[in-house]
Amino acid sequence: MALAQECLKDVFKTAFGVDLDIGLVVVLQTAGRPGTYNPHLHILLSSGGITPENKWHHISYIPYEILHRKWQFHLLRFIRTHLPSSPQVKSDIDEAWRQFPKGFVAHVQKGKVPPGGKGVAKYLAKYVVSPPISVRRIEDYNGKEVRYWYRDHKTGTIQRETIPALKFVGRMVQHILPKGFQRIRYYGFHGNVRYLTMLEKIQTMLPKKHPSDTGGYRVKPRKKFRELYMKTYGKDPFKCPDCGNIMELESIWHPQYGLIIDMMYCKNFEDTG
Q: Fewest CB within 10 angstroms: 13, 111, 142, 178, which?
């Protein structure tokens, strides 16, 4: 994930001859559509960068031929540097250069940068809080095998797959990231330390009059659990099924961590000051 910023800065310097300070949001996705292990990165990139002269340089086109080769160079150099040196590693890296003379990115088409990144942002917002395969895609389980469907990325058609139950479980759990691992990371002037300061600085650099981005993705406030439950099931989850009164939260208990929230303690503390 850290190579994303280094690679793209190198791409822009090679293509446009200027060293730009850019902002990136990098999202790691490990699952392919069938649920198999297919690690890859989604990158939301600023539509420009800051030059050494503190001027905004707009980026309207990404030279994908350069991007392919630069990503190959940075990734293979990273592997060579961080993996233990061995004849097998050296052989694999050499083979990667020979097998992919045009670079590593295989499914990026030429064209202008999509305005606002609406489709990608919406997809990623949904992905980071969802499992590799939703329950509705599981069609059958007979105690030994699981049958589920997915939409093939290349053909756009519905494909079905039946695999042993343990293999299915294995496909799912391999996407559980290590504890503390951050799936979403911020680089450049999108970094948490610089973001607020750079936001004010960039706003002074941008043209005072510029067309509104109708294709931009806007994050709407998420509805609360109670609203979502009532909309889905048509009943209030806070309503007691016995007396009909609205229930109040008293405590939350976890089998590993014990008592997490004790509202009675909070109320007593407030009463006693």
A: 178
Per the structure, how many domains does the chain have? 3
Amino acid, single-letter form, for residue 92: D
Share of the chain above pLDDT 70, in %: 84
Residues 203 and 69 in one domain: yes
pTM of the model: 0.66
Fill in the amino acid letter for 215.
G
DSSP string, 202-265: HHHHS-SS----TT---PPPPPPHHHHHHHHHSS-TTB-TTT-PBP---EEEETTTEEEEEHHH
Q: How many C-beta atoms surround the C-beta of residue 72 within 10 A?
A: 19
Q: Any idea of the CA torsion for 60, 64, 69, 71, to the nearest 10 degrees? A: 70
Tens-place pLDDT, residues 172-207: 999 999 988 888 999 999 888 888 888 888 888 876
Kindly tell me the burial class for residue 229, based on how many C-beta atoms sit within 10 Å of its own C-beta (0-12, 13-18, 19 or more). middle
Does 112 lie in the same domain as 50? Answer: yes
Residues 164 and 264 both lie in one domain:
no
Q: CA-CA-CA-CA torsion for 172, 175, 179, 184, nearest 10 degrees?
A: -140
* Structure confidence by residue, pLDDT tens digits, 54-106: 888 888 778 888 999 999 999 999 998 888 778 888 899 999 999 999 898 75
Name the residue with tokens 């294709």.
215
Give yes or no: residues 169 and 63 share one domain.
no
Same domain, 149 and 112: no
